Structures are given as C-alpha cells and as structure tokens.
Hints:
Blueprint (H helix, E strand, L loop, with lengths): L3 E3 L10 E2 L8 E3 L9 E9 L2 E2 L5 E5 L4 E10 L5 E12 L5 E3 L11 E3 L6 E4 L4 E9 L7 E2 L2 E11 L2 E15 L7 E11 L8 E11 L5 E9 L5 E2 L5 E3 L4 E10 L3 E12 L12 E9 L2 H37 L2 H9 L1
Amino acid sequence: MFPRTSALAAAIAAAVLLLSAAPAAAVTVDPAPSSASAAQWSVAPASSAGPDGRISLRHTVDPGTGVDDAIAVSNLGSAPATYVVAPGDGILGDSGAFDIAAGDPQESGAWITVDGLDVGTVTVAPGETRVLPVRIDVPAEATPGDHPAGIVVGVTRSSDGVAVTNRVGVRVHLQVAGDIVPALEAGDVTATFTPALVPFAPGTLRVETRVENTGNVRLGALAAVSGAGLDAAALAGDPAELLPGDTTTVVTETSAWPVFALFGTSTVRPVVLGDDAVTAPAPVEEGFATPAVSWTGVAALLLAVGAIGATTVARRRARRRTDAMASADADAPAAERVEAEVR
C-alpha cells in the first residue's frame, strides 16, 4: 500500500486509491501548514490481537455466505487523529497497479462492512492501535471467480480552502467459489524495427502484444518473441497483472538483423500471481511480420553503386576519346603523317 495525495474535496470512498500487495507499512502524511508535527499511521490485516503479518485479506467464499476478518489502524503520530475508513471496488489503474475505483462501490466493495466506526470514521489516540472488524457478505447470485476489492483509511485536511486527502489501504483478494476458469487470449501483435546507425548492424525489434483476461480469475502475463534473424527474448521484469475482463499490452524488445523482412512469433505465457491457488493455462501464440531495412546500409550501397557507375562511365569516355584519336591518326594521308613526323 502506498500513500497518495490529491487536491479533491471528495470523501475517500469516492477517491481513487493506489494500492499494492506489499506488506502494510507506516505512512507519513504531510501536515497542514498550522500542524505542529506530521501525522503518521499504518493499516494492516489483523486478528483480534492486532496486526498479524498478512499482506492482504484473502478469502474464498461460497455464494450466499459470508466471512469475518479484521484490519488494524495504528496511530504512529504524537496527537489524536480521526481517519475515514471506506471499502471500494478493486481495479487496475493506468500504471497497471492495483487501485480503488472512484465513487460508491458497485460490486465487491459493496459486500464489505467495517464495524467499530462512527459515521465512517475512527478516532485513534497517539501510539494506539484499533482493531476494526470486517464482514464480507457475498450475494447468492454472485458469479464464481475473483472479485477484487480494498479498504482505505485516510485523513482529509483543509489547506488554503483546498481539501488535501492522504490515505493508505489494504487489498482484499476475494474469490467466489464455483467454476474457476483461468484464461488469457493474445492478439493485435504489432512489430516495429528500428535500424542501427551503423550500416547492416543489428537493430532493435519491438513487439507489442495485446493480452486479454477472458477467464474469471486474475493472471499475470509474460511475453517472449522468437523467429529467424532475431535474438529470442522474454519480457523482463514482473509479469503484467490482469483482473478478469482486463486487457493490457505487453512489450518485448530484442536485437534483430536487417534482413529486409522479419517474421516471428509472440508467445504469451500466463503466470499465477502471489498466493493464488489456480493452474496457469497453456501459453498462447500470435505471429508477426515487419520490414527490417538498414537504411544507412541502403544509402551506403547506393553511394557505392553510384561511385562505381561514375567511375565506369568516366573510363568508357576516356577509352572512347583514345580510340577516336587513334582512328583519326589512322585515317590521315601518308604525306601529312610524314610531314608531321619531320616537323
């Protein structure tokens, strides 16, 4: 979970919150100009005794049933603080990180109730940790699969008439039991070749593959490319996360020779993320083709051909002049040749 700051006068439940699956940590919040010290707090999954070391709330629940859990809110500052606590629907933000949808929860966030609050807020003394019971009630008509959500905890202060909200949160991995179908599809592969400045040296091949999660559980996606004339390469870094119904573009770059045209295959490999108890489906493949021309090499070839052609033309012209002069001498009268020799 990460702190974020926004100049919005909306309540936390209607704001977009950036979350991660990292362990809960203390978060420093910039105080209002009149505040004597910065407020600090943390929020984490908990048992009745306090934070229990988990990184998220993770549950598999049958439709029409519920489950109880808890979060712990700790005030690490030197003054009492009142925090707004609100559940929300889980989404992926533009950066690909886990986020909370703006507005009132419409799906799994609406299934979550946090107790121990006073009109959506909790006041915590300095150095105190408050454990808040959490109840998740899954509707009977809920579809099987992942229904991501989160719970945010934050403070809103007013500075120069602008409300500044700082918040952190806990991710909720909620899965409704039933027919679990992990599936990814790949398509819309775009390949581009960027030639090197050095003539005929290997350039850079960039392959973008559109991936869609067509199943009902989250998956990660890694991509690799292979083909003649290019170095086989896999996507570096962490796999891209896709929630059910999400699409993203995975990018792979590798070196390739300028062989006028490159043909290859982009292979997307589904990856099981975190502690998810699913079986990754088989990799999916899509072909691609792109021109691969060394333009500096073409220019060098044209210059070389032009120089050879110019040299050849000059030599032919010189040979023709020489032949013409020899022919003229041969056709001249003998007397003229003798006179020329005497002179």
